[in-house]
Structures are given as structure tokens and as C-alpha cells.
Design brief:
- The protein is an all-alpha fold.
- It has one domain.
- Helices cover 60% and strands 0% of the residues.
- It has two helices and no strands.
- It is rod-shaped.
- The termini are far apart.
């Protein structure tokens, strides 16, 4: 039986070493994971943000001018020498 006890003692000794190696490996992996974690920084820019936008509002202006001209023609039908009657 002493031979069997010796084997059990060796096996338990190997288990202890394996647990220590596993713990050390886990610590190394966790340390590496923490050290390699990406960092996100939010900083305001030094210069203001400029947006250059070209917007065409030609249609709205044309409608307003067209309506204003209609009013002028109604108030002054002879403005261009044209009467309200067609020849």
C-alpha cells in the first residue's frame, strides 16, 4: 500500500502544481487583456467646426416674385403699355 500512497501523493502534488500553473496563466491572460484594452477619448477640437452648405432656394424666390408681379400687373394693367384686352 505504500506504493499506492506514494502514487496518490505524487498525483496530488501534480494537481497542486497544475492549479498553480493555471492560476499563473489566468493572471497573465487577465493582465494582458487589461493592458491591451482600447482607450476612447473625447476631446473638443481646437478650431470650431465649419459646415459649408450650398442650398438653392431659387423656387421659393421665383414664386414670391411671380406673386408680387401678378399684384403689380393687377394694380397697373397699363404698366408696359398693354391693356387688359388682347388684340
Amino acid at each position: 500500500m505504500s506504493n499506492e500512497r506514494h502514487r496518490n501523493a505524487q498525483f496530488n502534488g501534480h494537481l497542486g502544481i497544475m492549479r498553480e500553473v493555471q492560476a499563473l496563466l489566468l493572471a497573465v491572460v487577465m493582465g494582458t487583456a487589461v493592458a491591451c484594452a482600447p482607450t476612447v477619448k473625447f476631446e473638443a477640437p481646437d478650431e470650431p467646426i465649419r459646415l459649408e452648405i450650398n442650398i438653392t432656394i431659387e423656387q421659393e424666390v421665383l414664386i414670391k416674385v411671380d406673386q408680387a408681379l401678378d399684384e403689380v400687373f393687377e394694380e397697373n394693367p397699363d404698366i408696359f403699355g398693354l391693356s387688359g384686352e388682347s388684340e
